[in-house]
Design goal:
Largest sheet: none
Low-confidence stretches: 27-31, 39-43
Shape: elongated
Distance between the termini: 72 Å
Strand content: under 5%
Number of strands: 0
Helix content: 40-55%
Oligomer: single chain
Radius of gyration: 27 Å
Mean pLDDT: 74
Order of helices and strands: HHHHHH
C-alpha cells in the first residue's frame, strides 16, 4: 500500500506501522519467543539429573518389607520424582537414593520401584544392578 497523498491520516498510519516495527525489533520479538526456555543440558553418564534430595523420603523409609507389603504407598513416595526420566536414568537415581542399603537390597528395591512406577524392563533387557 503506497501512500499516494500527503494527508495527515495516511502519515499517521505509516507512523504507527513504523513505531510498531521498531518496538518489536527492540523487544526481541522478531521470530523468537521469550517464553521458550533453552534446552536443559544433558547430565554426564552415571549422574542423576534430579536432586537426590527429592528421593530422600523414598530412600530413607523404603525397605524390602515395606515395598512388598505397601507397594502402592511406596509408589506414591518414589514415582513422582522419576516420572519424566527414562528407565535407565531413573534406575541410576534410585540406586543413589538407596545408597545406605547393601548391593542386593539396592538392586531389588530399584527394580521393584521401577516396576511399581510403570518402568518395567523391555523383553530381554537385563535387570538393573546397583553396584
Amino acid at each position: 500500500m503506497a501512500i499516494a497523498s500527503s494527508s495527515p491520516i495516511a502519515w499517521s498510519h505509516a507512523g504507527l506501522v513504523l513505531a510498531a516495527a521498531l518496538l518489536l525489533m527492540a523487544t526481541g520479538a522478531h521470530g523468537q519467543s521469550a517464553a521458550t526456555p533453552p534446552p536443559a543440558p544433558t547430565p554426564p553418564a552415571g549422574q542423576c539429573p534430579i536432586d537426590i534430595l527429592q528421593l530422600t523420603r523414598c530412600g530413607r523409609f523404603i525397605t524390602l518389607t515395606y515395598v512388598i507389603l505397601n507397594g502402592p504407598r511406596a509408589a506414591r513416595l518414589c514415582c513422582p520424582p522419576i516420572a519424566q526420566l527414562s528407565r535407565a536414568v531413573a534406575a541410576e537415581c534410585l540406586c543413589a537414593a538407596f545408597e545406605r542399603n547393601d548391593d542386593i537390597s539396592r538392586t531389588f528395591l530399584t527394580n521393584e520401584i521401577l516396576r511399581l512406577c510403570d518402568k518395567p524392563p523391555r523383553p530381554f533387557d537385563p535387570i538393573t544392578v546397583c553396584a
